[in-house]
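For reproducibility, we list the full input for the magnesium ion complex.
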Amino acid sequence: MKQPGSRRSRLQYRCQECGYSAPKPLGQCPECSAWNSMAEEVQELGPAAAPSRSLAEFSSAPTPLGDLAGEVETTARSATGIGEFDRLLGGGVVCGQVVLLAGPPGIGKSTLMLQAAAALSSGLKTLYVSGEESLRQIAGRARRLGVGGGGIVLLSETNLGRILDAIESLKPGLVVLDSVQTVHHPEWPGTAGSVTQVRECAAELLRTAKSRGAVVFLLGHVTKEGSLAGPKLLEHIVDTVLYFDTERHDLLRVLRASKNRFGPTDEIGLFEMGEKGLREVAQAADLFLEEAGARTCGRAISVSLEGSRPILVEAQSLVVTTHYPLPRRTATGFDLNRVLMLLAAMEKHLRIRLEDKDVFVSLAGGLKMSDPSLDLAACMAVLSSERDLALPADTVFIGEVGLLGEIGRAPSLAGRLREASKAGFKRALVPKRSSGSAGAAGLDVIAVGSIQEAAGWVAGSKKSTMKGEPGRRTLPG
Ligand code: TYD
Ligand code: MG
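The corresponding predicted structure, in tokenized form, follows.
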């Protein structure tokens, strides 16, 4: 019989990846399929057990939606002034917003956060809690970044109870927790970084944020394999998830939003780490184009769209005679299946023979993109390498290629063309179907309806006889 007040405990095993619990240790987690991820955990049973609250617990009385019409706040946003960061947040942070900023160690989470906190602290009282660094270390970094004291209060602490006390007494409008894996609450089971601790601590801060209308940034580490308790586990309880990562080693840091209740999710922010912290990369053209202007076989430039941001990218290809019974096809930065489809469409509609050729296709700069509007550039790069014919260096190729060899629409064509024009390109091959929305931007726009027309234009441009090409027209700048 259960005695009131008595405490019993039970041993259970919890997956450190997803939080799944089982009475026995398992080699593989049945929930997330991770191997060797189960850790022992003591669960307190009975009345004195840790309160099992729902993760995001905040309550209201049932209210008809109509009654709230007048109350809909025009979400006041606080901008950080870091353009690449604000765009991802949809213009700035919103009161009560909880943001998870995750990334591998050393990517620059603390740096970005200190820079953003410094900017926000002019409008919001800021509490920066570090469980990883001493006050002296943070102050040293702030000096290096040229960040003044402003309204930032620093706290070096790992005990959640004391962090909550500090929030209680300071009443900050912005709380940064660096990192969520280093805090623990002594009354809850497990050590700092364990699933229970991470989840409960984050939930407690979430409740605090929502009830006080404070903005909370949780920083979390992920390893290269994307594992370690934390980020994956918190994705569904926070409002916004930002991932900070590098696509090309050490050169460029890319911030992506994978979830956002108050803004877009398809934007990317680009940063470079320098002597004085993170610098925004506004002009990405120089980074992704290898020696723009050089006439080399096998390269075609396109303009990809990441969210609302057009980025100039370079498709490269190498087509060589194979020495193996099975010709090789490799795609880097592109989806391999997409490339296989494009090669098949080219064989069929352009009547080129690739069955005895190895074909390598890649995106320069180590980028990974899934924008189908890069298809045309990929095809033209392959054609250029196969024919040993350099494409005009001042031309961009934009358009999706379909199974029938037709060139499909490219969304936001006007924005893409503006970006190309800014970078000094003179001409653009665009889908006939979207050319009405091209808006020119001072570029010579050539509308093509099929891959044959595009290939025809390329062959014609070699002889520099571009007059009378199908669909060629110049829109007014
Ligand atoms: P940090 O923000 O500590 O990364 P995280 O919090 O994600 O673990 O920054 C990591 C790296 O950035 C570190 O190796 C040092 C480097 N760095 C610079 O190159 N310049 C700078 O101005 C700063 C502050 C850091
Ligand atoms: Mg850090």
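The radius of gyration is 27 Å. The first helix runs from residue 83 to 89. Both points were considered when choosing residues for closer inspection.
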